[in-house]
Amino acid sequence: MEKVNKLISGTATKDDIITLDDCPLRIWSPLFEKVNNAILGKTEGVQITRADIPNLPTGAQDIWFSGLSIVNKEVFGVSSPASVRKFTVSALYDQSTYEALCPKEYREKYPDHWTGLWGSPWIAIEFDVDTLDSYIGISFKVDGVETAFGETETTPGSEFSEDRKIKYLITKGIKNYVTFDVRMELATSEWKGKTFEMSLVDADGNVLASASATLPKETFPPVTGKLNSLTAGVITDEESWNKYIPASYAEDYTYEESKASLPWLVINYDKVPEDAKTGVALQIGIGGTTVAFGGNAAEVGTVSEDKHTFTTKKDAGYVMFEINKDLGVAESAGKDVTVLATNCLAPNTAYTKA
């Protein structure tokens, strides 16, 4: 390696030609024949490839891979060639996509990591690349726009470019995979319906392979149970109050006390006993538009980050919303109302009219 270092530094002479005394094993001869040509100034069209490297133990190979990629750059003026045998990109957003498309090694280690994907999906990449360079990288575009990675820490064996548009991975010429959280790592909070074009790049930023995956425009929480019933009604006057108000609520509050805040949407549900411990995730459409929950909704249940999904408390059998305040609909009279229990099996849809 002393003679190779002289070659890189430009101080090698004909006296530094490598001989079998330097490398008694003849398996090295193809490699050092090229190095000798470089010492003699015969570098045109020459580069070191993986085929020139003997089959050494892994640790020794890593050292040679790194050093010889420098030889290619500094002496032969070329990047180390890379052979991409596989590059696939998948969108993971529910249990079925996780089980079908998540890299097997990761999925077998973490079989339950699909539960949060409906709210914060992943992009999964599997690749098989053969290169002498110590690093290859991943870059990406969102709907055709080049985008920087989010402000997250690097994982062991990786680092970001200065502008954070490339995440470099140490590959060592073996099969590998990587997953990215769309919201945090790919810095895309509004991800629904977006297309993510992921690219594999070499140490110089040259694109070696690209593939895309598109996330759906709508995703739903994982199914957590089954309903016996789901009904909905709109209270606008005393007659509809008497028809739809839950009996337990009417024991504490009267129509006269409540009429100033009408109209209300009342949703009654009955979950089968073994599933009663988990809440019901609801989405509501009024006049064909999905509402954004506000007002006091977060005080009686859980509101999703995008405001479109409300999850009831575990012990509730009903929930009520002020249509103007909690659902943000000022003019609702005569409009169709649809209630969808997104995490329950049928019957999971109820219809009424405001």
Short structural summary:
The protein is an alpha+beta fold and 354 residues long. It is built from nine helices and 19 strands.
Radius of gyration: 31 Å
Structural class: alpha+beta
Please count the helical segments.
9
Unreliable spans: none
Name the average pLDDT: 81
| Strand residue content | 25-35%
Report the strand count: 19
Order of SSEs, N→C?
HHHEHHEEEEEEEEEHHHEEEHEEEEEE
Helix proportion range: 10-25%
Shape assignment? elongated
Give the biggest beta sheet.
Answer: 6 strands, antiparallel
Distance between the termini: 82 Å
Task: Please describe what this structure looks like.
With 354 residues, the protein is α+β, with helices and mostly antiparallel strands. Helix content is 20%, strand content 32%. It has nine helices and 19 strands. It has helices spanning 2-9, 29-39, 58-76, 95-101, 104-109, 238-244, 247-250, 255-258, 297-300, and strands spanning 82-92, 122-131, 135-142, 145-147, 158-160, 167-170, 175-181, 195-201, 207-214, 225-235, 264-271, 281-286, 289-290, 301-303, 310-312, 318-322, 336-341, 344-345, 349-353. Strands 3, 4, 5, 6, 8 and 9 form a six-stranded antiparallel beta sheet that branches. A hairpin with a 6-residue loop joins β14 (301-303) and β15. α1 packs parallel to α3 (58-76).
